[in-house]
Amino acid sequence: MDALLRTTGVDKYFGGLAAVSAFNIDVHAGEIVGLIGPNGAGKTTSFNLITGVYTPTSGRIQFEGKDIAGMKPHAITRLGVARTFQNIRLFKEMSVLDNILVAEHMRMGTNLLEATLRLPSYMRKERHVHERARALLDEVGLSAHEQASATSLPYGKQRRLEIARALATEPKLLFLDEPAAGMNPQESVELMNFILKIRDQFKLTIVLIEHHMQVVMGVCKRMYVLDYGVTIAQGTPEEIQNNPAVIEAYLGVG
Amino acid sequence: MNPGLINTGKKLPMSRNQMLTFAAACIGLALLFVFDATFDSFTMQIFKLCAINIILALSLNLINGFTGLFSLGHAGFMAVGAYTCAILTMSPEQKEVNYVLQPIVPWLAHVQLPFLPGLLIGGFLAGFIGWLLGVISLRLRDDYLAIATLGFSEIIRVLLTNAQTVTNGALGLKGLPRFTTMWWAWGSAILITVFLVFLIKSSYGRAFKSIRDNEIAAESMGVDVFGMKVLSFTISSFLAGIAGGLLAHYLTTIDPKQFIFLKTFDILLIVVLGGVGSITGSVIAAIAVTISMEALRFLDGPLNLGFVATTGIPGLRMVFFSALLMVVVIYRQQGLMGKAEFSWDALARIGLLPRRGPKSGKGGR
């Protein structure tokens, strides 16, 4: 079967620094793949490359067989790739509901004239996206905070809002950048269940960066390990745990 | 903060808020008739200027407040609108009287359009130039964009000063028909305010605000950030052009010196005082600042404060506004309204209206 996402020899240089080099991953539909590695290993950079925030210096990134390297982020999102951010990036002056509605704009298929004249056709679409957004908020348990400003939410809920917002773009492939950061063990377990739930419910493929080994080992069937921009290992959680190169990268040489 | 974008459910013929909006609109219209009949010509001039300043403040707020782009080119777009509208609507005889140094180019000499097409063409030309400038300069951010747009507005002014056969250069244009009646000024202001309220509350408005709040997140959520910035910039320029046309036929005389970058700062003052990102704030501040500019004129004349007497310092009233701006920036950065908007529900919340009726509807104005 062909991979949903395949990167081939992707390099990214910042000046003379190779942030990511020879980055090759394959992600198949329905998988949950982990991306781990010490700080500064190039994990977030590789997310930024795939989602279009950065353009690769060289290499190919194929999503559903189509080369997306160098495309604008919004165009990649339109194809069905969504993401969350390591340092939460919500629309802070906007309400929780409006945060979701922004993500609905792309698939709303409206035009300026229709929207500013409030034609019945627009009002129908507006009602439709409101219903969809409310259903999503309900799904992640944020319905009660609909009108609250996004940044007034507690940290854990902000994380969930970010995921809900990403889901509103109707992705096939979802990138989660450290979703469990700052969570206690109890919350981490809830998050794992939540990730598995949305994968099944929205028929998603998920790639996640995570430092909580409990979370990564819990949900990922397969993972890649980066160190200094280089992929040093890949395989199942068991293989990774016993890989000498990985142990060295994390613990240093004894 | 942003209740009921649309009237959900409730099959009532009219909600409380809709009735209030309808009543407010009727009262507003009646007031306009009364003002039109009773104001003396001096008061009427100030009243009309309020409307023009509302349009200017709103158009600058769209780009600075709602889309988060710091643009300082507004005077340039006004100038384009003002000159285009003036040249297109002047009679051939007036043109001959005006263009004394060098005659006007032949293809413009015999053009004379009514006010509305002139105004719209001025707006569209300003919008087109805004689009062009946007496509070129909106790759820049923050201070860089401010500098680029400021430079653009100076270029426009220099062009106006030197294109003798088109704009009559530094002599300016005099004796323009006094087209900007109260109905033109306030009609445009009301129409544009309603347009912007609808725009900001629509999906496009949410996309604009998402860019202001977090550009990287916005593009990752599928918002075409560059396209949206250009759109916002174009609409803003179009509206500034319309305001320029209204201003030209309000003053009946224009020259390039009116459109120096200080004009942009006058509008920026209104936007900051009212609240960057609030339509209500811009409307209130535009009216308040326009009236105070006149009401404080006594500051420019001879003053006797008891302990010190002056023989009149021209420009002292601008010192007042500068001081006011400093106080606002230090103690209330969000301005009068912050990012809040007028709504009947908000009035009810602070107890100025009885609390009842379904939760729906939107603010009037």
Structure description:
The complex is a heterodimer of chains A (254) and B (365). By secondary structure, chain A is of the alpha/beta class. Chain A has ten helices and ten strands. Chain A has two domains: 5-80 and 171-251, Rossmann fold, CATH 3.40.50.300; 92-154, no CATH class. In chain A, the strands form two sheets. A six-stranded mixed β-sheet of chain A has the order 6-7-8-3-9-10, sandwiched between helices. Chain A has a four-stranded antiparallel β-sheet with strand order 2-1-4-5, covered by helices on one side. The mean pLDDT of chain A is 91. Chain B has one domain (16-349): ABC transporter involved in vitamin B12 uptake, BtuC (Orthogonal Bundle). Chain B is 66% helix and 1% strand. Chain B has a two-stranded antiparallel ribbon with strand order 1-2. The model of chain B is unreliable at 1-10 and 357-365 (pLDDT under 50). By secondary structure, chain B is mainly alpha-helical. The chains are: A alpha/beta (254), B mainly alpha (365). At the A-B interface, helix 2, helix 3, helix 4 and helix 5 of A face helix 9, helix 10, helix 11 and helix 12 of B.
